[in-house]
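Quick log. Single chain, no ligands specified.
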Amino acid sequence: MKISNIEISSSYKPFIIAEMSGNHNQSLDKALAIVDAAADAGAHAIKLQTYTADTLTIDASHGLFFIEDKTSLWKGKNLYQLYQDAYTPWEWHKPIFDHANKRGLLAFSTPFDDSAVDFLEALGVPAYKIASFENNHYPLLKKVAATGKPVIVSTGLSTLSDLEETVKVLRDSGCKDLILLKCTSSYPASPENTNLLTIPHLAELFNCHVGLSDHTMGIGAAVASVVLGARVIEKHFTLSRAEGGVDSAFSLEPEELKALVVETERAFLSLGKIQYGIQQAEEKSLRFKRSLYIIKDIKKDDLLTEENVRIIRPGDGLHPRFWELILGKKVNQDIKRGTALKWGMII
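-> predicted structure:
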């Protein structure tokens, strides 16, 4: 399948998405700088989130509307305040998308309600992302699927039966190009709860392309995921974690994103195929394998012994498999120390 002009398949290097989220800290200039940094790092796409506080929740502070969890990055706020701080103004989308296109990046977004889909359609986005928290929002899934564009779905916070229903809703509503991302919805996630072995199972179970929406620190999990078949990798991205931002604590900085692009491609290229034998690139190194060599000057009719023959480098003498066979044999000529032993020298 393709997203715009970029091929997504097991035969192509991973598609790297830099998730801006709210790391612009309500500055359009910073948002544009994030686009530049993502392009400079070699990412393939920049992704936004399209919502307002009012499209996500109501302004209330009782019960679960208030974040009391002391371990949360967002403790002490109600949901409405969090989304007010984190949202990307809708009037910024076009300048961000235009700038991304100038820099050679695909630009798209995660919509959170029907009005966001209509807005993004007017901007001509090439694909849609569904967040883990929204993968049970069936009216939204149907709306996105009906666009006929590729849909990337994070699978966090879902049982297997939940995912089966999500996929069915999307496919029944017109989604033909589906990508499922293994995702652990904790911020940050730990390597231990990332469970990358799920990735090939997802691909087999749902017969679709797969990837990783990665909330771990660093790039190790993302690089490892490539070996298991991930061909789309999403990581949150910021100019500097020290500058803060709603998702900055688990976001990559520019040099880390660059390393992610380089190392995931390197992991992809290293997969190759099942291969045994000597490759062309190895042929020059054959000379440095061990073989049988004369290590003392010997005369014609002398016997070959452990004192005058050894298995050493380089590799242009007889194969070491003949070691026991040649011991005790006579030579038919004088041989100087450092000569590769050949069959023609042996009686």
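The chain has a mean pLDDT of 96.
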